[in-house]
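Hey, resending since the last one bounced:
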Amino acid sequence: MNSTTSSPRQIEKVSSDNQVIGFDLFSQLTYMAILARGGVGRDRLLEYCGRQKFVTAVFFEYINLMARSMGVEYTRAFQAVAQKAKAPRIRSLLLRFSASISSGSSESDFVLSETRAEGEHYRNDYERNVENLRKWTDAYAAVLVAVTLIMVVSQVSSLLGSTSESFIYLMLFTLTGVTSVGVYLIYKVAPYERFTYDPVPGTTRDRKLAKFLALIFGPAAFAVGLLLFFVLTSNDVSPVRSSSAVFILLGISLLPSGYLASRDAKKVNKIDEELPMFLRAIGSIAGSAGVTLTESLRRIDSASYQYLKLPLERLRTRLESGLPSSQSWETFNRETGSELAARTTGMFVDGVEVGCDPAQIGEICSDYAQDITELRAKRKLTSSTFTFLTLTMNLVMAFILVFVLEIIINFNSKLNEVVSGDSTMVSAQFEAPTSLTAPPGLNIPQTQDLSAGLDVFQMTNMGSLQYTIIFAVAILTLANSLAPKFSEGGNNLRIVSYLSTTSLCSGIILLIVPPITKALLSV
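The structure tokens again:
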């Protein structure tokens, strides 16, 4: 039996994208550097690394399994696992580790140098991705304007009679494809990292409640909105105004969930900003005073931490009550809901357990958390600007599409009134007397020629055009709720926050623009 199939985790499932595994690899090497400073042996080092929840931990789990259970030499185990790694960065690291063992070099020095190199590599990749994200967000805004103008041109062309309905459908398909590609590119170029900690047993209260409200009220509001849409359209209300019920009800129903998700994301960001100071403080107290982590927590002034205060007090209470340390710290991580907190505290606690200097570990964990926080601040600068621009563009683009549509509907209605009301009078004025014979060479204009000229400005089916614009607004609403989330990162519940805003904006536009346009044209 293949040795790499005896573990519940599979190497083949690890991504081959260096960008995807970069965050986990940097965290894994930082954890290894902490254990190496404590003088942990090779077998225990691999064992501890294989227990972690990082996607890269599976490689060290297999190496430890092959070396301890099957008696394979470490160098050969590293090489065998490296051959199965799809990510070039992982493969290169394992091969270098194997070469270092063969040469008899110090494992501690090798791990520390690799950690520094990987930290610099991750920082450079992150900054490059942020710069690419800035360029692509600008391109997305430009593409959004372009596809909206294409839809406007297709509307006007349909009024002139120069295009068919199939051309409008083609433009709608183009709008869908272009916006989908734009959203996907933003998703790919944005730095890949996890912000929130979401274990299977549970997560933060706000996150649980936000997910519950979104799953309950979102589908219900959408179903009620569709029912109102069919009822209103059956009562001769225009499809554009009737569709506003779907958007408005969906937006209102998602507002509580979106607010909770936004509040949770803000809390996690603030906790991440306070982490470096906390890790440095607890490490300094435990190292200088030579006390346990429980005593160090007792001596820390929790009032100096605005967002970590309550989780720290609960953690200290659990530890003082004699509860297991691992379970107490895991509960602390779930209460914070921060992935960065879960990783750094796990590094710190394991380092203390294996006998590392707490002050030294606190410095390493604090520097790691500070680096991640500073990089995220650079990303936030780009994503916040893009978010504001996207929400504004969604409002403006929906307004343009609906406004032009209402102009065409009103103009077409006026033309129909002119043609139907004056066709008899125009025919009487231009029809030649039947008792007279026209002189040679004299052409008398006929009624049907004038009508044919007026037919150029008539729309045969306004309903299809209205439904096309409704679908276009829906596509823009969804795309403009996904793009800001992908640029910002974080939990997927952030999509609900942006979807509630864009849905409300689109619904209000669909509701108020038709009567306003009609009033303006009637003046």
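Confidence is low (pLDDT under 50) at residues 1-8, 424-428, 432-438, 446-455.

Sorry for the duplicate.
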